[in-house]
């Protein structure tokens, strides 16, 4: 029996080896020398009953080992590997899709953030512009308020009868060089703004004339006065009386002829100048 077990064990080992070689060969490996011979040998190995002839009834012979089962195992392993590779590829594709979606979302978020930042920048610029406009408006209001406080009109009650640039034969230059305030003779005439009297005298066609030079060099001429209340070199303040309305010189009636000459040069429109100084006229 010991010898029979040994022979049987050798047969099992040889069969397992032969099956492994056959499976390897079917998987694409090259043929291994001796595998076919080993298989033939296994087929011819006698079973234990052959050595017990005459002692008992012959035992049935054992079927030889084959590689069929092992081939099935190799096919199953290959199938499992293919499925594993397919699962890996599917997982990789899914991961790539998630990465692409994440990148697209990040780009979209960045674009949205940039658009929002641009909208906020434009809104801030508009806000700053409105603030600046309001600042300038308030500054202009303060300036005009200061001007209104530091400037005044020459007459409180008057009627405008001739404007700057008006044409007519009554003026030697062919056009009017000032602004005429009609008022009764003897109406007080006020100094428009702080300055210094540079002339208070008779001036021909201008009649009695007072010229006051302002701080910026502008000269203001008050003409056709019936009388003068100041003298050359005198400092005068806003609102000081400098004379009385008259009809002296080249006139057709009592009125104040006002001229404004920046730097003592050519005359400009007194109406526009007075309005620029905050006066309502």
Could you give a short description of this structure?
This protein has 281 residues and is α+β, with helices and mostly antiparallel strands. It contains 4 helices and 9 strands. The N terminus is likely disordered.
List the helices and strands and how they pair.
Blueprint: H1 2-26, H2 35-44, H3 68-150, E1 159-162, E2 179-182, E3 188-190, E4 195-202, E5 208-214, E6 219-228, E7 235-236, E8 241-245, E9 255-261, H4 270-276
Antiparallel strand pairs: 1-2, 2-9, 3-8, 4-5, 4-7, 5-6, 6-8, 6-9
Helix pairs in contact: 1-2, 1-3
What is the terminal-to-terminal distance?
Answer: 144 Å
Number of strands: 9
Taking pLDDT < 50 over at least 5 consecutive residues as the criterion, the unreliable ranges are 1-35, 47-59
CATH architecture of the domain at 159-276: Distorted Sandwich
What structural class results from the helix and strand content? alpha+beta
The 3D shape can be described as rod-shaped
* Name given to the CATH homologous superfamily of the domain at 159-276: Glucose Permease (Domain IIA)
Overall mean pLDDT score? 81
Biggest beta sheet summary: 9 strands, antiparallel
Per DSSP, what share of the residues sits in E-state strands of 2 or more residues? 15-25%
CATH first level of the domain at 159-276: which class?
Mainly Beta
Q: What string gives the helices and strands in order? A: HHHEEEEEEEEEH
Cα-based radius of gyration, to the nearest Å: 62 Å
Q: Report the helical percentage.
A: 40-55%
CATH topology of the domain at 159-276: Glucose Permease (Domain IIA)
With helices defined by DSSP (H or I, 4 residues minimum), what is the helix count?
4
């Amino acid at each position: 029996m010991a010898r029979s077990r040994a022979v049987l064990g050798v047969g099992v080992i040889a069969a397992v080896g032969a099956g492994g070689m056959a499976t390897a060969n079917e998987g694409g490996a090259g043929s291994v020398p001796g595998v076919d011979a080993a298989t033939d040998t296994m087929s011819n190995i006698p079973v234990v009953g052959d050595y017990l002839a005459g002692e008992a009834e012959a035992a049935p012979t054992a079927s030889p080992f084959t590689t069929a089962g092992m081939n099935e195992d190799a096919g199953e392993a290959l199938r499992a590997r293919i499925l594993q590779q397919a699962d890996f590829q599917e997982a990789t594709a899914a991961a790539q899709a998630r990465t692409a979606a994440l990148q697209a979302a990040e780009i979209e978020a960045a674009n949205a953030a940039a658009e929002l930042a641009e909208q906020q920048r434009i809104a801030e610029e508009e806000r700053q512009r409105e603030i600046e406009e309001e600042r300038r408006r308030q500054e202009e209001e303060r300036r005009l308020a200061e001007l209104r406080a530091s400037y005044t009109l020459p007459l409180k009650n008057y009627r405008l009868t001739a404007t700057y640039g008006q044409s007519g034969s009554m003026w030697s230059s062919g056009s009017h060089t000032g602004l005429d305030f009609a008022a009764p003779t003897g109406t007080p005439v006020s100094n428009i703004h702080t300055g210094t009297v540079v002339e208070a005298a008779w001036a021909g066609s201008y009649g009695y004339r007072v010229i006051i030079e302002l701080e910026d060099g502008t000269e203001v001429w008050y003409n056709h006065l019936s009388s003068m209340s100041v003298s050359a070199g005198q400092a005068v303040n806003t609102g000081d009386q400098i004379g009385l309305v008259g009809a002296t010189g080249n006139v057709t009636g009592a009125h104040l002829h006002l001229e404004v000459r920046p730097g003592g040069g050519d005359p400009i429109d007194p109406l526009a100048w007075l309005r620029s100084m905050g006066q309502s006229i």
